[in-house]
Amino acid sequence: MPANSWPENDYYDELDPLNSLLSDLSVDEESVVETDMSLPPRFQGRRRKAALVLTIVWSGTIALHLVSWGSIFVLGLTTLLGLHALVIVFARPRHYAKEMQGDLPSVSILVAAKNEDAVIGKLVKNLCSLEYPNGQYEVWIIDDHSTDKTPQLLAELAQEYEQLKVLRRSAQATGGKSGALNQVLPLTKGEVVAVFDADAQVAPDLLLQVIPLFQHEKVGAVQVRKAIANAKENFWTKGQMAEMALDTWFQQQRTAIGGIGELRGNGQFVRRTALESCGGWNEETITDDLDMTFRLHLNNWDIECTSYPAVQEEGVTNAIALWHQRNRWAEGGYQRYLDYWHLILKNRMGTRKTWDLLMFMVTMYILPTAAIPDLLMAIARHRLPILSPVTSLSVTMSVVGMFAGLKRIRLDQKFSIFTSFLLLLQTMRGTLYMLHWLVVMSSTTARVSIRPKRLKWVKTVHSGNGE
């Protein structure tokens, strides 16, 4: 069901007073500009909302340098964030039964693919060879009007694998990946819907390990850890490997305290009833997974994250590709706060999730945005940045989380001085790599509030390399 035809529900129960200006959509490789009037009310006025947030953050940061109690406020904020960080660090991850009680539910695996002839064959062979009761899972490849050899390869593979089904979209189809997934959803039969990228590779027992997590009625989705297949290639891919370990560790610790678990696109499993309660994938966002995360939690579903099994994917191999990808992630992540802020403040998710979400927003979006005016004021007044305590806490949490995450994903559990030293080196390199997020976040929050949102992002090219 497309987002534009969502049923009437609380997402649209009150119109946002800030909805007024033009808003752009970004779908796959094309840039599409639409007016606010063409969007559902919840997604209107994003640019104006972003401008308001930017103004508040900049003026608030400048004011902290000018008032006498500015340092006290920062220390109070640091204490608040620090207490939340300590709770996260010492939380014990949840453990669920790994065996299914009763019959296994049916599973539909979906992959939206466009010009993926380099990897599509390997992907299909992998997904069609999973260990699961015969006839209980199906694989759908949505060919989003590919112009390379992808259609021919899929036609050949469909003759070889009984569970493979192919849907080819027309050139006029819209909605990007979300549109492709919405179009195929009515044709699927799985009680659990899994979504993978075209470069995904998984272990044969993936379904047998993940599906039992849905025995818990409140679990609406499960995200498996993303592992970088070509991690050894260069600095950028090694950094992404450490980043994914950090991300999974944070998600597991946050869910352990009743906070937010998040979807990451590749390797996400969603209960069909939960998906239908959200009205399908949102075609008015550039990051369908991050948007779905909020809507699932707003509908009182939980999202679990697992370190094992993992889904292998190719990491981008150069700074330009990384910049395009991370800017899209940053904008999509920020965009959902602009879309659902009213429902978040209504505490629709519950106190624990709302609090965790706000702490995460301050750390990931507000602080990087405030870093620029803070630095400018520090230079002008010949003093240290006033937000230094909060920034130091954020960096410390990143280092601790990355070390713990890298340690958690190691297959061998024997740790010596040498392995600890190796993990420390990987952590330091990963921390250096993660500094790019400071530039990405600060520039993204400024760009979407000042410039008309005409973001044209480049499709990530999959080469099929990586172990």
Automatic annotation (TrEMBL):
Quote the Pfam families the UniProt record gives.
Answer: Glyco_tranf_2_3 (PF13641)
From what superkingdom does this record's organism come? Bacteria
User: Which parts of the chain span the membrane according to its record?
Assistant: 50-67, 73-91, 357-380, 386-406, 418-439
GO biological process terms on file = glycerol metabolic process; membrane lipid biosynthetic process
Provide the GO MF annotations for this entry: hexosyltransferase activity
User: Where is the signal peptide, in residue numbers?
Assistant: none
Q: Name one GO cellular component term.
A: plasma membrane
- Listed EC numbers: 2.4.1.336
Which keywords, in A-to-Z order, does the entry hold? Carbohydrate metabolism, Glycerol metabolism, Glycosyltransferase, Lipid biosynthesis, Lipid metabolism, Magnesium, Membrane, Transferase, Transmembrane, Transmembrane helix
Q: What is the name of this protein?
A: Beta-monoglucosyldiacylglycerol synthase
